[in-house]
Amino acid sequence: METADPHRFDEGRLRALTRISASLTFDQSIEATLNALAAAVVEATQSVACAVALIDDERRFYRIAGAFGLPEGYGAAVGGAYRAGANISSLEAHRTRRPIRRTRTDYMRRDPRQTRASALVRDAGWDAIVSVPLVFRNRALGAMTCCYPIGLEPDEQEIAFLLVIADQAAVAVETAQLFADAQGKAALEERQRLARELHDSVSQALFGVGLGARTARKLLDQDPAKVAKPLDFVITLAEAALTEMRALIFELRPDALETEGLARLLDQQAEALRSRHGLRVETDLGPEPSVSLPVKEMLYRIAQETLHNTAKHAKARLVTLSLHEQPDGIELVVTDDGVGFDPSGSFPGHLGLRSMRERAAQHGGAIEIASAPGHGARTRVLVPAGS
Fold first, then answer.
1. Residue at 213 is within a domain
2. Angle 11-145-177 from CA coordinates, rounded to 5°
């Protein structure tokens, strides 16, 4: 007689596994992702409730980050039991890296440290519990616990299916953490860049304003006829500082593109380049393009980075910036008459050439950079119409 392979799944479970894998997106919080996972597990298995716990023994960290079918407050109650030293099935699965089978009466009702959690599920219609570890590259990240109706005992095939789902969950947790770390690093780098801009431009301009004002005040008593010159100096610096602040505020406001428009923000960037670096910047900005807000943000960020690279590296005297709707899409072009560079090498600045191309490609666009040492540079971004 042929023995059934517990790791072979029927077509329905394979489809369910595909749906679960597809639902693990990373453009939302880890809690939202794992809540959706827990709901999908209950739908795809015989369980009636599911909880996903993230665990770090070294830091004494335990948190139910996703759940479905469990009462409100259950996660906090189990977390309290963990801190009190209770024997929790998910913790045992995490530590042993193997499935753990229990019943609610096995340990929850007999362990006074789980009194609160036990009270919350006293009238629940489940008893059997299976906890499976979440392991990614030989590192345990937590455990997934499924609860089964009274009288139903999950078989080996069910547990094998849970282990496969747990592997998917572990990948989701790790990827979400890496994504969050990358976002945090990017945010830190952006704050540092803004701090440098404030220091290098606005703070120096305000220092000059104070110096010019003190000079004008002294001349007012000594030689009033000479007051006009330092006052003109103060006005010039104040206007430059105001331009800088407007540009930085636009960068900090997420609604700036929606309220001000892409053409307006690009014009502000050009003005900031003039006042900050003394460059001659010519703009040819047509009507506000009829594209989505994410596309506008992509074009703005690429233009911003290109202009930053130009000011920092190109040693240019003239920069041109144009934005127009062409028959084949929206075209953004930045050119300069600077020293040029080799586009096949590492692209200077915060964003590399590869990252800029990836940013454009996300919206169906393409970026072309033409340059050579001693011959300036031309950056062209084209986004298809209707993006």
1. no
2. 90
Q: In the predicted model, what is the mean pLDDT of residues 304-323? A: 89
- What is the average per-residue pLDDT within 224-243? 77
Hey, what are 360's tokens? 């454009």
pLDDT bucket at 350, cuts 50 / 70 / 90: very low
- Output 230-234 pairs: Cβ under 8 A, ≥24 positions apart: 233/208, 234/208, 234/209
C-alpha–C-alpha distance, residues 53 and 63, integer Å: 5
148 and 265 inside one domain: no
| CATH code for the domain in which residue 282 is found | 3.30.565.10
**Residue span of the structural domain in which 23 resides:** 11-174
Q: Is residue 387 part of a domain?
A: yes
- Chosen domain end from 174, 198, 214: 174
Measured between alpha carbons, how far is 42 from 32 in angstroms, rounded to an integer?
16
- The DSSP H or E segment spanning 343 is none
Q: Please check whether residue 185 lies inside any domain of the structure.
A: no
| DSSP for residue 45 | S
How far is it, in rounded angstroms, from Cα 7 to Cα 156? 8
Q: Once rounded to an integer, what is the mean pLDDT over residues 321-341?
A: 93
The mean pLDDT value for 344-351 works out to 53
Q: What sign does the CA torsion over 261, 262, 266, 269 have?
A: positive
Q: How many Å apart are CA 234 and CA 216, to the nearest integer?
A: 9
Report the C-alpha gap between 175 and 352 in whole angstroms: 22
Q: How far apart are CA 296 and CA 289, in angstroms?
A: 8
Query: Which residue in 301, 273, 280 sits closest to 379, CA to CA?
Result: 301
If you average pLDDT over residues 22-40, what whole number do you get? 75
**Percent with pLDDT over 90 in the chain:** 26
More confident residue, 8 or 271: 271
What pLDDT, on the 0 to 100 scale, is given for residue 17?
Answer: 63
Exposed e or buried b per residue across 75-100, where buried means at least 16 C-beta atoms within 10 angstroms of its C-beta: bebbbbbbeeebbbbbbbbbeeeebb
Q: Does any domain span residue 218?
A: no
Q: Are residues 150 and 25 in the same domain?
A: yes
Element (H, E) at 333: strand 329-336
Which alpha helices (H) appear in the chain, and where do they start and end?
A: 11-23, 30-44, 74-83, 89-96, 104-107, 115-120, 156-197, 204-222, 228-252, 256-260, 262-277, 293-309, 353-361
For the chain, what percent of residues have pLDDT higher than 70? 77
Domain boundary among 123, 154, 174: 174
